[in-house]
Specification:
By secondary structure, the protein is an alpha/beta fold. 61% of the residues lie in helices and 9% in strands.
Length: 614
């Protein structure tokens, strides 16, 4: 039975992705609710039917009081026995079916799938964002919003059907029953409804911003705590334990203050609700008794009115809490939308086609990019890298080397100029096809918190085990991988490497990252300080492997260790976002310019590199 309701909606079904999600709260929720429209209608219908059933029981209570005052017990059973039997069947069979069906639709059909569809689609949307987008936010805060928005949206939907739809149907039905009993009974109910609506308006007006402020504060706390955990090595290295505690305490204190302000609203609401509910009971029951005294109402009407108002009295606190939780949840969703509903800032063009790589020629034409700051980055850079050519890229920190690589990978779009690969403007091809043709080893070779095998297979997921091992051997990684063992007892290629590969040394991470790129075997290779984490002995051992991997590929290698690029076909020296020197190693040394100065300061390179290589 449960599986039937749980499978009414497939949260992972294909859907049209949007680069620009709806900006308003209800449009955002409505967009996610499209697969649930029929299910929502059925759930609302069952909520209304449940309210009618409950009201019918109260109405029948009044009728039962009236008919008990009439005939003798024997006559009563003879006259009303079948009616009582029908009511018993109604209570024992029909009522449980209605309530069970409504509960199953909501609890098993809507709630698990609604939260899942938001979390899945939100994650898909965020994962499509550019690298620059991620660089402008905390990973912890992004993840927190992805995780807290779905349950908040689910809570809002739950309140809509479990409380709001039910209570609206109940109040309308109660008004109809009182009107049928005596029209004048609607007057105290109407006054109470007005007071209740005013209190609700006052509460909601204050709860929504208070809830959003509280949610913002929780996200800030999460971001700061995760930031400290992610950078725990720096915290320990600089002995900033107390500073981090103070930094977190400030956010935790703000979270406490915003939450306390939110709770004050609920306390005031509860005090006022108790007062107006007292008015409801006294006015409706008192008026019904007055009508009975005057002979205008039966004892059954008094009993039904009393039961009805006591039930409303019990419900109103629940309804108010449901409504405030509803708007509180909407506040959390609104806060999550600040991340989830942001438009994709770097998209494929509508007519983008896959990159067709024939030779591997890279043409950079009048390229400028300053990250919107007007300074730094690149300025009017022009360079052609021939197919199979190996280019060494050097320069001081901030010269623009990494910016050039980011633009080549299309992590950003250039402000002016263009990059062509085999005559195709990279902004006009699909991003995935572009990046599949480029292999890259970065200076900070962070790994996934997965097994060694999974990390190497990231380069080419369909590779065979022997190909994985061969790539690890070529990267001088196979030896130490065999000795790895994680706390759960997994060893070798099955061992988990920890978050960002923290359980491995820098050199081990670098070699696994290199094995990943070797396995990918892309025709364009970018090495960004690829051997920076290796000691000189391992670097020397791996140099021949690196040059073997470069064979037949177009290569861009960034290095501060000039020994690693001395054998390149050409060396490009950058300064202040521009190319200031270009040539072979020997030619640049003879020129006596910036490169020669760098080389002299490094005393002719490192172990295993001939000084006059070039």
């Amino acid at each position: 039975m449960f599986r039937f309701f749980e499978n009414l909606v497939d949260p992972f079904a294909a859907y049209p992705e949007q680069d620009t999600p709806p900006k308003t709260l209800f449009a955002f929720l409505w967009d996610y609710s499209q697969p649930f429209k029929k299910l929502f209608a059925a759930t609302a219908l069952m909520a209304i039917l449940s309210a009618i059933v409950e009201l019918w029981l109260l109405f029948y209570m009044g009728r039962l009081v009236d008919i008990l005052n009439g005939p003798s017990p024997a006559e009563f059973l003879a006259e009303y026995g079948w009616e009582l039997a029908a009511m018993a069947v109604f209570v024992l069979v029909f009522r449980p079916i209605v309530q069970t069906l409504g509960t199953a639709l909501l609890n098993n059909g809507v709630l698990p799938n609604y939260g899942t569809i938001i979390r899945w689609r939100a994650h898909r949307h965020v994962l499509r964002q550019s690298v620059g987008w991620f660089e402008n936010d905390f990973a912890g805060r992004i993840a927190n919003r992805i995780m807290q928005t779905p349950p908040a949206a689910g809570d809002a939907i739950f309140q809509v059907f479990d409380a709001i739809t039910f209570s609206l149907a109940y109040i309308v039905g109660a008004a109809i029953l009182l009107w049928q009993a005596d029209l004048s009974l609607l007057l105290p109910l109407g006054i109470w409804l007005l007071l209740y609506a005013l209190l609700m308006r006052w509460t909601i007006k204050r709860v929504t911003p208070a809830s959003k402020a509280s949610s913002d504060a929780r996200s800030m706390t999460t971001g700061r705590v995760v930031d400290a955990y992610t950078n725990i090595h720096s915290v320990k290295l600089f002995a900033h334990h107390e500073n981090e505690l103070d930094y977190a305490r400030e956010a935790i204190e703000k979270t406490k203050t915003t939450f306390a302000n939110e709770m004050r609203i609920y306390t005031i609401m509860d005090m006022m609700l108790t007062a107006i509910n007292g008015f409801l009971v006294v006015s409706v029951v008192g008026w019904a008794i007055a009508l009975w005294v005057q002979g205008s109402a039966s004892v059954g009407i008094v009993a039904a009115a009393t039961a009805l108002t006591l039930r409303l009295n019990a419900m109103t606190g629940w309804i108010m809490w449901a409504l405030t939780n509803f708007f509180r949840a909407l506040g959390v969703v609104a806060e999550g939308m600040e991340t989830i509903a942001q438009p994709i800032d770097l998209v494929d063009r509508p007519a983008a086609k896959p990159l067709v790589l024939t030779e591997g020629r890279i043409t950079i034409s009048d390229l400028s990019h300053h990250y919107g700051r007007g300074a730094g980055g690149l300025q009017n850079l022009t360079l052609t890298i021939e197919p199979g050519e190996k280019i060494g890229l050097i320069g001081r920190s901030g010269a623009g080397k990494s910016t050039l690589v980011k633009l080549l990978l299309r992590f950003y779009d250039p402000e002016t100029g263009r990059i062509d690969i085999d005559g195709q403007d990279i902004t006009g091809v699909t991003q995935d096809s572009l990046r599949r043709q480029i292999g890259m080893v970065q200076q900070d070779s962070s790994l996934m918190h997965r097994s060694v095998r999974d990390n190497i297979l990231y380069g080419r997921p369909d590779a065979h085990e022997d190909e994985v091992i061969l790539a690890a051997q070529r990267a001088e990684a196979h030896g130490f991988i065999g000795d790895l063992q994680d706390p759960e007892g997994r060893s070798g290629y099955d061992a988990q490497v920890g978050e960002r590969g923290v359980k491995l040394s820098g050199g081990q991470r670098q070699r696994i990252a290199l094995a990943r790129v070797i396995l990918k075997d892309a025709p364009i290779l970018v090495l960004d300080e690829a051997t920076s984490a290796l000691d000189s002995e391992v670097e020397a051992a791996i140099q021949d492997t690196l040059y073997g991997v470069m064979e037949g590929k177009t290569v861009i290698a960034i290095a501060h260790r000039l020994s690693t690029i001395a054998r390149m076909d050409r060396i490009v020296v950058m300064d202040d976002g521009q190319i200031v020197e270009i040539g072979s190693h020997s030619a640049l040394l003879e020129a006596g310019g910036l490169y020669a100065g760098f080389w002299a300061r490094q005393s002719g390179g490192f172990i295993g590199i001939d000084e006059d290589a070039g």
